[in-house]
Amino acid sequence: MRSLVVCLFMLVGPGLVPGAVAADCRPNILFCIADDWGWPTAGAYGDRVVRTPTFDRVAREGVLFNHAYVAAPSCTPSRASILTGRMFYELEQGAILWSFLPNKYAVFPDLLEQSGYALGLQGKGWGPGDFRVGGFARNPAGPAHKSLAAFLETAPQDKPFFFWFGDNDPHRPYEPGSGAKSGLQADAVQLPPWLPDNDVVRNDVLDYYYEVERFDREVGEMLALLEQKGLSQNTLVVITGDNGWPFPRAKAYLYDRGVHVPLAVRWPARVAGGRVVDDFISLADLAPTFLQAAGLPPVADMSARSFFELLASDGQGRIDPARDRVVVGLEKHGPLFPMRSLRTHRHSYIRYYAPGPYACTDSGPTLQFLKQHAEDPKYQRMAALCFGEHPAEELYDLANDPNEVTNVAEDPAYAEVRARLSADLETYLRGTGDPRVLGTGTEKFENAPRYSSREKRRKE
Question: What is the reported pLDDT for 452?
Fold first, then answer.
């Protein structure tokens, strides 16, 4: 295997094609994705309670992204978009929780493997759903292994590797009181204004924090293993979550707490550390980014865009003027409730294709309390925000309303903004072939089979 010193010269030396990676110096890739870990639950983002030393370290030594968004705030479509570099609605039944992903859509781990990478998967990859129905012989994220250590014992020493670590933390259910028992302080929790401020909710958040911390520790053990084996310098490490936290008005909703996720990236051999980037990133952009890092050409029909240039630059803040927005959406997470959103630094615009009440949040103490007290005048406004009637459009002025609680879509003062964002969203959706706006192909969403047993499953 070629030495890291030679590789480093080839990466930065004269004659290198901009953005290229020498074949013998391709990075290992460790992709760590938590289940239901939403922004801003990390010390690097200013959370005063949760302890995430591993994520914070990767953010310090690499690049911290302030505006990373999932394609959809639901496990299956979010992970399908990550794997394919496409928006969820481009993937037919792959857009639906507990369904299947057609194997006619290329997934980046297969492309890496075909180019010589060794692949490994620990935990949750693509899913939940049945990958065999889609034509895959294994999980699209890669072949299963017990651990990174076990994988490295058998992986060829002369090949780079891609390893997907998919933790089930911090998905519900939680062990009640686990957060408080670990020393976390309920009185320091910062709650969004649509959640009741009481011991029930605060301790529910602490239990979520406890599982976030467990994920962080497990990633830390993997990084320590890479250091012991001398693999850290040329390993591209990515840490993120697949959708927002599992609380009302978050997961399965298009508000920031549902679609905004942590993201930190470190690659010491190539990426200048200590940077914070404010450009918008869709996690669908990971597929073309991984391919470019591995020296592979882009896949022509991937609608996502590589952000390799952001990593390879030494810039901070807003770097690429074209990355000034992101589009997210959902078809269903339980009930069919199609919706799409365009998010900019200033505004969040949401369009519902089936206006009405929508309540699809994972069960837990916070949800139960809010439902039990929905008629209490003290909590009526909160319950309405979480479970109430949705209009056809919502618009939020994030500069004045960062928590997205005051819909200004019907305010005449915002008429021009609403019209512009609506048109921009429509243009993007049509340009990427969204069946919901084209009016054809939506039956693949509506009639997608569901491969699950509610009695047997513990986590979605």
Answer: 77
Strands 161-166 and 118-123: parallel
Res 453: pLDDT: 58
C-alpha 234/C-alpha 232 separation (Å) is 6
pLDDT number for residue 4 = 45
Q: How far is CA 187 from the centre of its chain?
A: 29
DSSP letter at 46 equals T
CA dist., res. 19 & res. 309, Å (int): 7
398/280 Cα distance (integer angstroms): 15
Distance CA 185, CA 179 (A): 8
- List phi, psi (to 5°) of 106: -65, 140
Give the pLDDT of residue 355.
83
User: For residues 285 and 289, what is the distance between their CA atoms, to the nearest angstrom?
Assistant: 6
CA–CA gap between residue 370 and residue 350 (Å, rounded): 24
Q: What is d(CA 424, CA 420) in angstroms, rounded to the nearest whole number?
A: 6
Give per-residue pLDDT as tens, 160-180: 999 999 999 999 999 999 999
Whole-number Cα distances in Å, 46 to 56, 98, 190: 10, 34, 11
Rg, Å, the chain Cα set? 21
**Stated length of the chain:** 460
Do residues 29 and 290 lie in contact, with contact meaning Cβ atoms separated by under 8 Å?
Answer: yes
pLDDT in the model for residue 458 = 42
pLDDT at 222: 98
In whole angstroms, give the CA distance from residue 18 to residue 238. 22
* Weakly modelled stretches of the chain, pLDDT under 70: 1-24, 453-460
Strand pairing category for 389-390 and 356-357:
antiparallel
Q: How far apart are CA 360 and CA 457, in angstroms?
A: 17
φ, ψ (nearest 5 deg) of residue 61? -85, -10
Q: Put the strands of the sheet holding 336-344 in their side by side order.
A: 325-332, 336-344, 347-352, 393-397
pLDDT in tens, 5-29: 335 433 443 323 334 455 568 999 9
Q: In angstroms, what CA-CA distances link 107 with 90, 91, 379?
A: 13, 12, 45
Task: Confirm whether pTM is higher than 0.70.
Answer: yes
Report the distance separating Cα 134 and Cα 131, nearest Å.
Answer: 5
Instruction: Give the tokens for residue 212.
Output: 């976030």
What pLDDT was estimated at residue 373?
A: 97
Q: Sign of dihedral through CA atoms 230, 232, 234, 236? A: positive
Phi, psi angles (nearest 5°) of residue 394: -130, 145
Cis link prior to 128 (omega < 30° from 0)?
yes
